Amino acid sequence: MTATLPTTVPDEYPTRKRPTPSLIFRRDPVVWSTAAAGPIDAETLESYDRNGFLGVDQLLTDAEVATYSAELDRLAADPAVRADERTVVEKSSNEVRSIFEVHKISELVARLVADERVVGRARQILGTDVYVHQSRINYKPGFGGGSFYWHSDFETWHAEDGMPAMRACSISIALTENYAQNGCLMIMPGSHRTFVSCVGETPAEHYKQSLKEQEIGTPDQDSLRLLANKHGIEQFTGRAGSAVMFDCNCMHGSNGNITPWPRSNIFVVFNSVDNTPVDPFAAPDRRPPFIASRDFTPVP
């Protein structure tokens, strides 16, 4: 279901439009349903509402981890996939960094996206059917995997994709051990309730540069310092097969990986079918559909 949508909806979270940054209090709910609506219990939902994330110690079995890891290796080694515009390589090493729209490239990943353990949690948090706004595989090889600077995904999805409201969530499924030292995910708990409005005008085709290293749409240091001092920073370590689901406006990032231990994950963004994008709020054009889907067909 590909839809043509109205372009005139209120901009509740203006960004990249003013000469100075600002902080905007969140206007949208975080959790849109109840514990009765899915697999997440009431205590975990309350924690997600408060902190902006939840962890699953073992989402995948060891056998499933082995299967998906082999699929990641196959994709990274496939010359056709590497040459595809949906594949991003590291600036320094030229190794594969990410493969986008992976649920349309890999049948295995498509089945995982539709697994109730994955999509069921997203439906429950967002309170409606959901579609895949973005999917990708992230590789962070040893001895040189690059960092991801602090950012809110929603800032980019709002500014460049036209996502109106904070009614989306992401799940990161680990296929390798996540250590504190090998570039694990970091989130500021509670930061999802504050939107950091960024400075800087979005240039045309900004995605080509931002997928390797983002500069426009990154928060200022004073705002980051304020959020970090208020909320602290939590690191997500854990075994292969574990997962983290987090709100679209969580302030998060990860360090580079100079250890010998690689880190890889499957990353899926679910958006509510009641929150489909309109024209970008702060960009001259839309990003390509392999980065920001315009196919709003609900995940079965």
From TrEMBL:
Cofactor(s) for this UniProt protein: Fe(2+)
EC number in record: 1.14.11.55
NCBIfam families on file: ectoine_ThpD (TIGR02408)
Keyword Metal-binding appears in the UniProt entry: yes
Gene source species: Actinocatenispora rupis
InterPro entries assigned: EctD, Phytyl_CoA_dOase-like
Pfam families with a match to the protein in the record: PhyH
Superkingdom of the source species: Bacteria
Gene field: ectD
Quaternary structure (record): Homodimer.
Protein known as: Ectoine hydroxylase
EC top class, as a word: oxidoreductase
Record-stated family: Belongs to the PhyH family. EctD subfamily.
